[in-house]
Amino acid sequence: MVKTDVLVIGGGPAGLAAAISAKKEGADVILVEREARLGGILKQCIHDGFGLVRYGEKLSGPEYAERFIGEFLELKIKAKLLTFVTSIEKNDKGFKAALVSKEGIEEVQTKSLILATGCRERTSKQVFIHGTRPAGIFTAGTAQHFTNLLGQLPTKRCVILGSGDIGLIMARRLTLEGAKVLGVYEVKPTPSGLTRNIHQCLYDFDIPLYLSHTVTRVFGDDRLTAVEVVKVDEKMQVISGTEEIVECDALILSVGLIPENEIAEDLDVEIDPKTKGPKCDTHLMTSVPGIFSCGNALHVSDLVDYVSESGETAGKYAAHFALQFQDADNKNISSYTGVLGDGKLVDIEIGDNILYFVPQSLNLETDLSSVIVYFRSKDVFDNSKLKIKVDGKVVFEKKYAFLRPPEMEKLKLDFASFGITDKSLILAEVEVGVSE
Amino acid sequence: MDSWSDIVDVCSSVAIHGSHIHVVNDIKFTGDKIPPMRIPSLSDETLSGKTPDVLIIGGGISGCAIARELTKWNLSVMLLEKEADFALGASGSNDGEVHVGFDLSKGSLKQKYVLLGNKIFDQITDELDVPFKRIGQYAAFTQSWLFIPICLLALWRRFYDGVWDTRIVTRKKLLKKNSTFSKKMKFAVYNSSAGVVCPYGLTIAYAENAAENGAELYLNTAVLDMETDKDGNITSVTTNRGKVYPKVVINAAGVFADDVAEMAKDRFYSIYPRRGTNSIQDKKAAKNIDTIASVQYINKAMFKKGHTKGGGLMRTVHDNVLAGPDAVETYKKEDTSTNAESIKTVYDKQKGTVPANSERDIITYFTGVRAPTFEEDFIIEWGRKCPNMIHCSGIQSPGLTAAPAFAFDIEKMVVEKLNPEKNKNFNPRRQGVPSLKNMDLEKRAEMIKKNPDYGIIICRCEEISKGEIIDALNRPLCPPTVDAIKRRVRPGMGRCQGGFCSPLVMQIIAEERGLKLSDVKKASTEAVVLYGETKGGALHG
Q1: Mean pLDDT of B203-223
Q2: Are A129 and A247 members of one domain?
Q3: Nearest CA in chain B to A82
Q4: Do A19 and A87 belong to one domain?
Q5: Which of B17, B22, B99, B318 is catalytic?
Q6: Run of H or E including A297
Q7: Of A292, B24, B102, B246, which is the most exposed, with the fewest CB atoms less than 10 Å away?
Q8: In this structure, are A244 and A329 located in the same domain?
Q9: Contact B456/A at CB under 8 A
Q10: What pLDDT was estimated at residue A52?
Q11: Domains of chain B: total
Q12: What pLDDT shows up at residue A327?
C-alpha cells in the first residue's frame, strides 16, 4: 500500500495547479491522470486566449498547460499516468483509492483528496433531439479531439447547436479547415459564450448566429443528411410552423458542460444543485472533511485562469489538512476536525438575480480576510449592483455596468470585516436597474 | 384507404386471436408511400452457387438462436442478415425483459413458449456466458376494488396456466420491500422468475456460438427474390451477394416476414408493424428501483382496443434504469426514429410507479419496430403452399423470452425433414469477453498481469479497458464499427454517450484491423464518421 498526504485526481489545469500548490506547502503529493499525458482538455485547445488574466499574455491551451507541467516536473511530483481510479473509500486514516493501470491494481492511502475531475459535455439526447441515429452527431469537444488531436475532419458542412465557447471555437476551427459552418443556433435570446468569441469566431468569419432557435430533429439513416431547426418563444418553447430543414452532414453540439462528480457523490459529498459541483467552504473543502474540489468539477469556469486559481486554493488547504492530520495520527478522521471544519460553517445564501455563488459557505475558524469568490448572474443586466448582506444589512456592494451569465465574475472579499457570527444570515444578491 | 389506423382497425377486427386462419392485408394504403426495404449497398458474388442445407433469413434473436441449435447437427447452416450487425431490428431495441407470461392465456404459441423459454434461460445464458438476472416483477394496482378479481386471475394463472410463481403482495409488504414505489399502490401481482438480459448481447452470443460450431453467418446480405418449383418448393434464393440453393429456408425476417413469405408465394399472414420506444437512464437512477415494476389501470379505454403493451420501469442487467415501451402503429417497417411524444407518454405513465424517477436522468432512448400479425400470436410452422419453408413469424414480445424455446422446436422440424447425423464436435459453451469492472481486485490484477491492455481504461463511464475492446474485435463476426464495439463491450453506453471514448475506440479498431481512421464507421458501411485528414492532418500521422 502506497501512502501519501494528498491524492489529486485529474491532471488537467485544476489538478496540476492543486498538486503544485500542495507540494509547495510541504505535502507529499500523488496525481492520478487517466490519459497518457498531462494537461487535460487543454491539449486539444490549440486556439489562443489562455492566460490573459494570469500572465497578461495570450497563450494557446498546450502552451498554458506546459507552464504548469514544467513546474510540476521541476517539483518532482509523482504522477501516475494512464491510471484510472476504480474506487475510493473513506477510512479512519483518510481515504483509500484503488488505481488501475497497465501495471495492475495499486492501492493508495491518502490523508486528503482533491477532486479535479473536470466536466463532460451535455449530449444530443440530454437536450432531447429526436429522429434517426446517424453518424455525424458530435459534441464540440469530440469534434475538437478529432480535428486537433487526430488531424481528422469530422464534417464538411455542419450546423452548430448552442453558442457555448467550445462551439464557437469549433465554428472557426472547422471553417479554417475548409468545412462550411451553416450557422450557430442558440435556444436562448442571448449568446452562451464569451463576447470575444462571438466576434472573433463567428462575425469575423461571416458565420450567422441564430438566437432563439433550436434543433429538434436529425435525419439520415447512415450519415446525417439534415437537421430540423425551429424558432422558439421567450419561454424557449417551439413555435410551430417555423420548422425549417437544413441540409448538412453533421450536427455539432455545444449545449452545456456538466461537472463530473461521480466520485464525490459516491463519497457522499453534498452537491450544490446550482453549480452541480460540491458545496464548498472558502478553502474549497467539501462537506466531507478531507475532500477538496477545484476547477470545472467545482463549477464550470469561463477562463482556465480561474480553474488554476481554484486548484491552487484547494491544493494549499488540502496540504494543510493532511499535515495537521499527521500530527494527530492516532485520531480517527471523524473526530479530527481541527482548524478546518469544526462545524462553524455559515452558508452564503443566494438572492435575486444570481445564478450561483462559490464558495457556498464560510468557515468561521479560518482566516476570512481575503476570500476569492466567483459568481454568475442569472440574466444579462445593465447597470446592476452586487450586494452582500449580513442579517439584512448591506456590508459590501459593487457596481457592474454589465453582467452576463456566460461571463463569470471574480472578487476578493474581506469577510472578516463583516462582523459575521455563526448565527448570521449572509445573502448575496444582484440589484438591477441601478442608476449611474 | 388513406388512413393506416383504419386499415389496422379493419384487419384487427376480423382477426380471431389464436386462430390458424390469418388475416392477409391486401387493402391498398393510399395515405403515403410505404418505404421499400432498405437494401445494403454491398454487391458481390461471395455466396454464388452455395448449397446450404438450411438457409435462415434474419439475424435477430430468432434466426441466431435457430442457427445455434441447428449446429448440433451435421448440417450446413447459412444465416443472412441485411443489416451491418446482428439484432439491429426488434431484437436489439426492446427492453430486455425475460417474461413470465402473466398476461397470456393457455392455448397460444406465445404462452407455450414463454413458459418454456423462461425456464431454460438460466441454462442458455450460462452456456453462452451472457449476464442474466432474475430480479422479479411487480404489476401493481391502485384500484382496491380490483383486489378480488385480480386474486382470482392470479390463482387461475398459477394453477391453470402454469405461471407457477404468481403471488399477490399486499400494500404493506410491497412498500416495505420497495420504499420508492408510489404510495398510491394498493396491492401487486409478483412473479419472482421475471428477469433481465441484454437482448442484443444474447443475440450476438447465439450468433458467435453458431459460428464457432460451423454455421456461416453473413451480414450486409439481403434476400431479394426466390424461385419455386411446381410443388411450391423454393429452389433458389437471390441475394445481393449471389444466388444460393438451399434445401430448407427458415423465415425469421421479423417485420419483413410477410414480404419474404410473398417471395416464396406463401403469404398467408400479414405483419403490421408497431413501434415501441424505451428510454435508458443514468446508473445513478438505479437507487430508485432494483426490480421490474409497472402500474396497471383498468379503464374504459382498455376495453375499446388495446395494444397497450404493459411498459414499466426496470433495472437493466447493466444496472441502468429503463422506462418503456409504448406502442404505436406504423406502416414504416424500419422507422426507428424517436419522437418527443413517446418519451412523454412513457414518463407520464411511470410517475405512478416510482414518483422520484425523473426523465432528467435519461441518457439515451431508442425505438424498435415490433412484428405482430393481426392475430397477435407467433407463427411457427411449415409453409402452407411452400413445403420447404419454415415460418418463424409474428415474433414480438415475449419473443426474446420465447426464442430459446421455439428454436428447439424448429430444430426438431428441420431434423425430421433432413435426417442429419449429430455434430460430435458441437460445443454449447461460448466464452464471452471478460468484464473486468465486475471482478474483485485480485482477480482483476491477475488478468492485467496476463494482458496489460486490461489495465488501460478507455471508457470512463462504463470502465471498459482497451483489452476488452480488442477481445471483442477478435470474437467471430465482429464488424469494425463503433456501434458493434459499443453493443459488445459497452464503451459509449454511459452518461457521456461516447463523447470521450469514441475517438479512442476508433483508433483501437483502426489499429487492430489495419484500417485508416476514416474507414472506421459508426454502424453501417455507409455511416461515415470522419472525412479524412485535415489540411495539416498528415503531419499528425
Answers
A1: 98
A2: yes
A3: B456
A4: yes
A5: B99
A6: none
A7: B24
A8: no
A9: yes
A10: 94
A11: 3
A12: 54
Q: Which of A105, A141, A152 sits opposite B499 (nearest CB)?
A: A141
Greatest mean pLDDT among A317-326, B1-10, B462-471 lies in B462-471
Question: B-contacting residues of A 128-167, CB under 8 Å?
Answer: 128, 130-136, 139, 141-142, 145-147, 149-156
Give the nearest partner residue to B518 out of A101, A105, A152, using CB atoms: A152
State whether A332 and A388 are in the same domain.
no
- Residue in A82, A101, A133 to test binding to B, most B beta-carbons within 10 Å: A133
Do B283 and B266 share a domain, yes or no? no
**CA geometry: angle B89, B90, B93, nearest 5 deg:** 95
Closest-CA residue of chain A to B364: A125
Same domain, A365 and A421: yes
- Determine whether B318 is an active site residue: no
Residue B112: which residues within 8 A CB-CB, separation 6 or more? none
Average pLDDT over every residue of B433-441: 95
Task: Looking at the complex, report in whole angstroms how far the Cα of residue A402 sits from the nearest Cα belonging to chain B.
Answer: 33
**How is A383-415 classified by DSSP, letter by letter?**
EEEEEEEETTEEEEEEEEEEE-TTS-EEEEE-G
Torsion of CA A205, A211, A214, A218, to 10 degrees: -20
Which residues does chain B have within 8 Å of residue A128's beta carbon, measured at their own beta carbons?
340, 343
Indicate if A1 and A106 belong to the same structural domain.
yes
B387 Rama sector, left if φ>0, alpha if ψ -120 to 50, beta otherwise: alpha
Residue B20 pLDDT grade (very low, low, confident, very high; cuts 50, 70, 90)? confident
pLDDT over 80 (residue A330): no
pLDDT in tens, B214-238: 999 999 999 999 999 999 999 999 9
pLDDT in tens, B301-322: 555 444 455 679 999 999 999 9
Predicted local distance difference test score (pLDDT) of residue A336: 39
Q: Which of A1, A46, A146, A232 to mutate to test the interface with B (most CBs of B within 10 A)?
A: A146
Q: Are residues B473 and B341 in the same domain?
A: no
Q: Is residue B457 located within the same domain as residue B491? A: yes
Based on the structure, what is the number of domains in chain A?
A: 3
Separation CA B122–CA B316 (nearest Å): 16
Which chain A residues are closer than 8 Å to B336 by Cβ? 132-133
pLDDT band at B537; cut points 50, 70, 90:
low
DSSP characters over B61-129: HHHHHHHHHHTTBS--EEEE-SSSSTT-STTTSS--EE---TT--TTSHHHHHHHHHHHHHHHHHHHTT
What domain range includes position B473? 436-540
Residue of chain A whose alpha carbon sits nearest to that of B38:
A221
Residues B325 and B356 both lie in one domain: yes
User: Cβ distance A294 to A14 under 8 Å?
Assistant: yes
B82 touching A (Cβ < 8 Å): no
CA dist A417 and A395 (Å) reads 9
Q: Which three cell numbers stand for residue A64?
A: 498554458
Same domain? For A135 and A71 the reply is: no
Q: Judge whether A68 and A21 are in contact, CB under 8 Å.
A: no
Give me the pLDDT at residue B303, please. 52
Subunit contact B534:A153, Cβ cutoff 8 A: yes
User: Domain boundary residue among A321, A341, A361?
Assistant: A341
The pLDDT of residue B535: 84
Rounded CA-CA distance B324/B494 in Å is 19
Whether B98 is in a domain gets the answer no
**A window 227-286, beta carbon within 8 A of B:** 262, 265
- B 320-339 residues inside an 8 A Cβ radius of A: 336-339
Please check whether residues B278 and B179 belong to one and the same domain.
yes
| A398: containing domain | 343-436
- Asked whether residue B475 falls in the same domain as residue B515, the answer is yes
Question: Would you state the cell numbers that stand for residue B90, as one nine-digit string?
Answer: 426488434
Which residue(s) pair with B211 in the sheet? none
| Residue B458 belongs to domain with CATH number | 1.10.10.1100
CB contact under 8 A, A153 and B539: no
* A82 interfaces chain B, CB cutoff of 8 Å: yes
**B 41-80 near A (Cβ less than 8 A):** none
Is there a single domain that holds both residue A129 and residue A209? yes
Q: Which residues does chain B have within 8 Å of residue A153's beta carbon, measured at their own beta carbons?
A: 530-534, 537
